[in-house]
Fold this sequence. Notes:
The protein is 35% helix and 21% strand. It contains 10 helices and 12 strands. Helix 3 (73-85) links the parallel strand 5 (65-70) and strand 6. Residues 22-30 have low confidence and may be disordered.
Amino acid sequence: MRQVWMTRPEWSEPEWMRLEPASPAGRSEDADRRDDSRLRSMPLQRLEALDSDTSVLHGLSGAVSPWIVWTSPAAVQAFFFWLKRHAQDITFLGKVWLAAIGSGTRDQLLRLYPGADKIVCADSSERADAPGLLTAMDLFMRQKSMDWASQTLLVVEGESNRPTLREGFVARGAVCLVAELYRRVEAPWPESAWTEITRSAAGALGLVVTSSGAGRQLIAAFQAHGLALSQVIWCTHHAAIAQLVQEAGVARVRRVRLNHQWLSYDLFEHEAYW
């Protein structure tokens, strides 16, 4: 591969979302990624913040065992922007349990809230989904001798998220609150991008697919443009996305870690396939 396109969604108003007290090294993830000229941002979706009120936070104030659960890195960004917009003090975060659906979401939380103590998340990137987080939280509850019926969980997510996680909490007897803080809007690539793919040598361009929705959107677009999926190298961090692409006809999918410290190495130096 000579170049890789990242399909991760981006904010429609990025200047609003500049919240970084940043990483311990004082750099943002985006800054690290820009250092590698071989990586190019090519989002298939735009994110828009929703102007929700903060009344849902009151449900945590009297809870016996309150939690906040973030379902994506975007949910973390939207949450802290939401608090900032409504002038909410973040000190209450020190009094709740924290959970994140995967390591990427956990890392985003640590960038914006370095004071976080224990963050429960799925035990591997391949299990960074609702069942994986539920399994991790079940284990945590057993280790702490905690009763699900005493838990109140605020799930921070995007509009129209699948209900799997919420339903899992309710099925375990917990109280589940929801804060929908952003929406996804499809942003198809311009025709110039498809011309660039068509003219590239087979295997010279890689695509990092960061969600199943992006994978389905890309597969349909390749078919609509009459392009073979083998024209590019397909890459992803998640086994379910790899399976989706393979079922569409791609023989091998490159495995990557979305953590910026490893991404370039996985893409350009280390060979690993599902």
